[in-house]
Amino acid sequence: MEHRHLGRGGMLISEIAYGNWLTHGSQVEEDTATDCVHAALDAGITTFDTADVYADTRAESVLGRALKGERREGLEIFTKVYWPTGPGPNDRGLSRKHLMESIDNSLRRLQTEYVDLYQAHRFDRFTPLEETMEACADIVHAGKAHYIGVSEWTAAQIRHAHALARELRVPLVSSQPQYSMLWRVIEAEVVPACAELGIGQIVWSPIAQGVLTGKYQPGQPPPDGSRATDDKGGADVISRFLRDEVLERVQLLRPLAAEAGLTLAQLAVAWVLQNPNVSAAIVGASRPAQVGENAKASGVRLEPDLMARISEITAPVAVTDPVRTYEQTPAQRP
């Protein structure tokens, strides 16, 4: 497993990170979730990403128990805050009240004294950004987080936050957007801004929720037990890719993956890692074997000609419009 700097910060993270969205506390039993975490550790993965909202806070608890007994200094644990975690009007958003309470709750569930990265899960248009950044700075200065980051923020939002972070002497080092061969909306604006500011991407869904494994066939129903049949949220997320024109293009990638000596999933993960602004690709799993297989994408170098042929195949169906990032900012408080 190779490691990369998170942005221009000094911290190194495994270039493949393990994430437990849609799995821990939800899709898989805790024993299996724990086995997946241990498989990640066995593969050399040291970076683990979660969020307070995943599985109604259960995902953080499952991850905390799975990592108990591991050497804390050898891990990078990330979590996020924004979405509702309770019934009250202040149990959401990026207000100072919610951030200061949420970090303590996350640390309790994760069974750790600090997280390595604390991320704003969305931009909060209803809280002054100055208030949010001052609270983040206090969290860092209190030793409860080492670095801060954002998730699905626009380039303009990131620039504003970065300027405030510099004034407050707090390290804003990361952005966590969706990114894959099929979802390239960050390339036009977010990546150039982050490269300029020294912010690295920790990308989620590099396999497009499993579509880039090739298991979904055009003209055929989704396989039983797949994410597309999950009624706990997985089916909603993956539906945008389950069109025959997309699935047909994915099948055209098979000979390219074989040429590189990779599975389709490994090719997809390796592809996002070719972007120099990407610090890590987050992979999830419902079975331990999936973790080890995906981890084999670490260190893979794809030739420019192969990258060009991948783009030629996927270009007709890839989403590239940067406006899709703007759409990630909720219009109303959740």
TrEMBL record:
<dbReference type="Pfam" id="PF00248">
    <property type="entry name" value="Aldo_ket_red"/>
</dbReference>
<keyword id="KW-0521">NADP</keyword>
<dbReference type="InterPro" id="IPR023210">
    <property type="entry name" value="NADP_OxRdtase_dom"/>
</dbReference>
<keyword id="KW-0560">Oxidoreductase</keyword>
<comment type="similarity">
    <text>Belongs to the shaker potassium channel beta subunit family.</text>
</comment>
<dbReference type="InterPro" id="IPR036812">
    <property type="entry name" value="NAD(P)_OxRdtase_dom_sf"/>
</dbReference>
<feature type="domain" description="NADP-dependent oxidoreductase">
    <location>
        <begin position="15"/>
        <end position="313"/>
    </location>
</feature>
<feature type="region of interest" description="Disordered">
    <location>
        <begin position="214"/>
        <end position="233"/>
    </location>
</feature>
<protein>
    <submittedName>
        <fullName>Aldo/keto reductase family protein</fullName>
    </submittedName>
</protein>
<dbReference type="InterPro" id="IPR005399">
    <property type="entry name" value="K_chnl_volt-dep_bsu_KCNAB-rel"/>
</dbReference>
